[in-house]
Amino acid sequence: MNKAIHMSLPDATTPTDPSANIVSVRGITKFYGSDVHALEDVNLDFPTGQMTTLLGPSGCGKTTLLKIIAGLLETTSGEVMVKGKAVTSPGPERAFVFQDFALLPWATVTRNVAFGLELTGVPLKEREAKAKSYIDKVGLSGFEDKYPHELSGGVRQRVGLARALAVDADVLLMDEPFSAVDEQNRRKFQEDLLHLLSVENKTVIFVTHSIEEAVYVSDQIVLLSPRPGRIHSIIRPELDRSSSPDDIRRDKVYLDTVEEIWGNIREYLD
Amino acid sequence: MTTTTSPGVVSAESSEGTAGLKLSGLQLRLISIVGFFLAWEISGHVPISPAFPTFSGTMMAMFEMIFDGSLFLAYFETLKPLLLGVGISAFFGVTIGVSMGLNKKSRWLWEPIFVVLQASPVAALIPLITYAYGIGITAKTVAVIILASPIIVLNTYKAVGNASPVLVQMSRAFQGTRMQEIWKVIIPNAAPVIFAGLRLGVAAGFIGVILAELLITPTGIGDIISYNRSIAKYPHMYAAVLSIIVFSAVMVGMLEKAEVKYFRPEKKRGQ
Amino acid sequence: MKVAGYEIPPVFSLLIWIGLWEVAGRMDLAFILPPFSSVLGELTTLIVRHDFLAAAWQTFQAFAIGMFFAITGGIALGFIMGTNKTANSILGMWVNIFASAPLSSVVPVLMLLFGLGQLTVVVIVVLFSIWIIALDTYAGVHHTSNSLKEMGRSFGANKTQLLFKILFWAALPEILAGVRLGLIRAVKGIVIGQLLLSVVALGRMFRTFSDNFQFEEFWALTLILFVFALLFSTLIGRLESKVEYYAGTRD
Ligand SMILES: Nc1ncnc2c1ncn2[C@@H]1O[C@H](COP(=O)(O)OP(=O)(O)O)[C@@H](O)[C@H]1O
Ligand SMILES: [Mg+2]
Fold first, then answer.
1. Does residue B16 sit in the same domain as residue B112?
2. Domain-embedded: residue B166
3. Which of A183, B148, B182, C161 could be joined to C157 by an S-S link, Cβ 3.0–4.6 Å?
4. Residue C248 has pLDDT above 60, yes or no
5. So what's the architecture of C35-247 in CATH?
6. Which of C120, B175, C218 has its CA nearest to residue A117?
7. Claim to verify: residue B16 and residue B134 sit in the same structural domain
8. What CA dihedral angle connects B239, B245, B251 and B253, to 10 degrees?
9. pLDDT tens digit string along A201-242?
10. Residue B90 to residue B156: CA distance in whole angstroms
C-alpha cells in the first residue's frame, strides 16, 4: 500500500468554504460548437495556498478547464467561484502562464514582465522597479534588455512566470509551462518554482501531461479522463518535501504514486 | 521560434552570408553592381541599338541634370503628388483596413470592393482622371491613390484579422481593455505586414504617378523621360529612368528602416 | 452580415457599390461616370465587335506568351536563389529592386528598344510578373524544412530527385501564390503598356474611346478587363487552396 490518499469527489450541492478553497468550480460542462464535447460536469475545489495539478492525456480538456477558470473561455454550463464569488471574466486575483509563453516579440524582457502592470495603469517607474525585482527572483538578471527571440524556451517561460508573479495575483494558472523546456532545464525550473512558491504563498493550478512532474510538484492531483473530460480521481501524494529534490525523486511514495497513476491512465487508454 | 516569426511577410533577403574565405554578401552585391554597369557600358559601345546609350554617357547626362538642377525640379514635381497620394492612402487605407480586421460589418462592406480593385488593372482609369481633374497635381494624386490604396487596405486587414490569438488572450488574461488590446498588442503585432503593404503601396504609387506623367500631365520625371525621348537625347532619358528606379529602391529601403526603428526594435540586432 | 436572420455573403456588398455607381451616374454627378446600366448595355455590344475581339485576342496572345516566360523564368530564378547562397546574394538584390521598381518608367525605354508592337507587350508582361514569381518561389524553397531535405538525402535521393520530388512539391504552395500575384501584375502591366503604346490592341481602343468622350465604351472595356483579371486570380486561388492543406502542416 502506498500513502497517497484518495479523496471523495466534492458534492455539487455542498457550499464550499471560501477561506479554505480560494477557487471552486461547480458543474462545468463545455461544448465547442455543437459536437466537440470537451468537459462534462466537472466539480473541483482548489485549496488556498496549495498546488493542484490537472493531469491527463492530450485533448482531455485540461487547457479548456484552466482557461475557463481564467475567465478566458465561457462555459456551456456551470460556474467558477473565486474567493466565494462567481466570475466569468479575467480578474486581478488570477494570473496566467501560457504554454507557448505569449510574450510580445517586440518588447524587451523588462517590458514583457511589466506588461500586466502596464495594462492596469501602473506608472512606468513603479512597474519597472517591480518587474526588476521579479526578474531577479526568477533568475533572469542580466536578461532585462533582451528580446524574446534571443532567449531559449526555458528562459522565455521564466519571463512568462515573472510576468504572472508581478501582478501579485493570489492564484497562478499555469498551462503546461514546461512543455517547451528541455529536460535538464525543466527539472531545475521545477525546483526553482517550488522554492519560489513556498516564499510567495500562492495558490497554483498547474496543467501537465507528465505524471512525474505532477507527482513531484503537487499537493493535489486531479486526474482527468478523456473526451469528454471528467474527473477520474483525485490523488494527494504525501511527499516529504523537506528532503532534497533528488531524494524526493527516489522516494518510495513518489515512485508508487507515479506507478499508481500510470495504472489508472492505462485503464482508460485500453 | 513560434512567438517571434511574423506571419505572412516574405522577406527575400538572407543576410547569413558566407563566412570564412568566401566573399561576403555585401562584396558579392557590389561586384554584381559593377558587373552590371560594365556590361551596360560594353553593350552601349557595341551598340546593340542606336537608342541604347553607354553607361558612362548616361551618367554624364545624369550629372548634367543634377548640376543644372532640372532633375531636382522634376523630382519635386513628381514627389509632391506621390507623397500626398501615399499619405492619404496610408491614412485612410490603414484606418479602413484596421476597421475591417476588427469589425465584421466593415469587412462585409469593404472586402469585396478592395479585392476587386486590387486584382484589377485600375490603371486603365487614369486617362479618365484628366477629364475629371484636369492635368494638375490633383489628377496625379488621384492616380497614386487608386493604385496605392487597395494593397494598403488589404494588407492591413489581413494583418489585423490574423492577430495572434495567443497574444490577444494574454492581454485579456491580464485584464487589458479592448482598446489596450488593439493598441498594445494587435497593431504592433500587425505592424510588419502593414508596413509591407505600405511599401507595396509606395511602389504602386510610383507606377501610378509616372504613368500619369507619361500619359496625361507632362511634368516631373515622366516629362524628362518623354521629352528626351522625343528629341532623341537618349542618355538623358535613360538617366531619368535609372534615377527613378534607384530612388524608389532607396525610398522603399528607408521605409523598412523606419519600420524596424519605430515598430520592431527587436529586429535591430540581427537574428 | 446578417439581415433578418439570413447570412448575406460579402460579395453582395458589391451590389451596394454598383447601386451607388448607378445612382451617381443617373444624377450626372460626374460626366465621366455614366450609369452602370448603360455601361452594361454597351458591354454587350462591345464584346461582339470585331475590333474588340481582334484586340482581345492579340492581347491574350501577348499575355500567354509573356506569362510562359515569366513563370518558367521566375520559378527557375527562385530555385537558383533558394538553393545557392552565392546566387542569392547576387540575384536577390536585383530581383527585389525590380519587384518594387516603378516599371511604368521603363516602358518608354522598351518602346525604343523593341518597337511599338507585340514584342514590347510581351516583354512588359515578363518584366511585370517574373520578379514576384521568383521571390515567392525563393521563399518556398528557402523555407522548406531542413529535415525534409535531409530525409530525402538519407534515403539516397540525388540532386535531381531532391529538386523534383521534394523541393518542388514542398515549395508548390508559394510558387502558386507567386504565379497568382504574377498574373495580376501582368494584367496590370499589359494595360499600362498598351495605354502607353496606344497604337496596339486594347490600348488603341482605350485611346479612341477617351479621345472621343465615349465613356460608356471606356467603362465597358475597363469592366471586361476587371472581370478577366478577377476570373484569372480566382482560378489560381482555387488551385492554391487545393495544395494549401499540406502547406498548413509545415513548419
Ligand atoms: N477552439 C476549439 N474549437 C473546437 N475544439 C476545440 C477547441 N479547443 C479545444 N478543442 C478540443 O477540445 C478538446 C480539449 O482540448 P484542450 O482543452 O486543449 O485539451 P488539453 O489541453 O487537455 O490537451 C480537444 O479534443 C480539442 O480538440
Ligand atoms: Mg493543452
1. no
2. yes
3. C161
4. no
5. Orthogonal Bundle (1.10)
6. B175
7. no
8. -130
9. 889 999 988 888 888 888 899 988 887 888 888 888 887 777
10. 10
Q: State how many domains chain B has.
A: 2
Q: Which chains touch A (3 or more CB pairs under 8 A)?
A: B
pLDDT at A265 over 90: no
Tell me whether residues C10 and B108 touch, CB distance under 8 A: yes
The pTM of the full predicted model, rounded to 2 decimals, is 0.84
Sign of the CA dihedral running A182, A184, A190, A193: negative
Residue B233 belongs to a domain = yes
In-domain check, residue B23: yes
Task: Tell me what pLDDT residue B6 has.
Answer: 37
Same domain (yes/no): B77, B198 = yes
Same-domain status, B236 and B141: yes
Binning pLDDT at 50, 70 and 90, where does residue A17 land? low
In the predicted model, is pLDDT for residue C142 greater than 70? yes
Q: What's the start-to-end Cα distance of chain A, in Å?
A: 24
Checking if the pLDDT of B4 tops 80, the result is no
B227 → chain C, closest CA residue: C108
Domain borders along chain C are 35-247
pLDDT digits (tens, 9 = 90+) for B188-224: 999 888 998 998 999 999 999 999 998 888 888 989 9
Query: In the predicted model, is pLDDT for residue B238 greater than 50?
Result: yes
The CATH number given to whatever domain includes residue B258 is 1.10.3720.10
Phi-psi region at B33: left, alpha or beta (left = phi > 0; alpha = psi -120 to 50): alpha
**Prior bond of B81 cis (ω within 30°):** no
Out of A28, A30, A31, A32, give the residue to mutate to test ligand 1, the one with the largest number of ligand atoms within 8 Å of its CB: A32
Longest dimension (CA), chain B: 72
Residue found by looking up cell 538572407 in the block: B14
- For residue B262, give its domain range: 63-268
What residue type is C116 in one-letter code?
L
Measured CA angle at B30 (ends B26, B35), to 5 deg: 145
Check residue C128 and report its DSSP letter. H
Most confident of A125-139, C9-23, C232-246: A125-139
Please tell me which residue of chain B has the smallest CA distance to A111. B184
Across C223-229, average pLDDT:
86
Residue closest by Cα to atom 26 of ligand 1: A59
pLDDT tops 80 at residue B271: no
Closest Cα to atom 4, ligand 1: which residue? Answer: A32
Asked if C80 has any chain B CB less than 8 Å from its own CB, the reply is no
Is domain A5-93+170-179+197-236 annotated with CATH 3.40.50.300?
yes
Nearest CA to ligand 1 atom 27: A59
pLDDT at C244: 67
Burial level of B87, CB count in 10 A (0-12/13-18/19+)? middle
Report the distance separating Cα C177 and Cα C183, nearest Å: 10
Cell numbers 506623367 label which residue?
B213
SS (H, E, C) C51-72: HHHHHHHHHHHHHHHHHHHHHH
For residue B46, count CB atoms less than 10 angstroms from its CB and return exposed for 0-12, middle for 13-18, buried for 19 or more. Answer: exposed
Kindly give the distance from the C-alpha atom of residue A119 to the centroid of ligand 1, in angstroms, as a whole number: 28
Answer yes or no: do B264 and A102 touch at CB < 8 A.
Answer: no
How remote is the C-alpha of A161 from its chain's centroid? 11
- Band (pLDDT 50/70/90 cuts) for residue B183 is very high
A236 membership: H or E segment, kind and range: strand A230-236
Distance from CA of C35 to the nearest CA of B (A): 15
Q: How far is CA B177 from CA A116, A126, A131, B101, B160, in A?
A: 12, 21, 21, 17, 17
Answer yes or no: is B35 within a domain: yes
Would you say C199 and B217 are in contact if contact means Cβ atoms under 8 Å apart? Answer: no
Residues with CB under 6 A from ligand 1: A 32, 36, 38, 56, 58-64
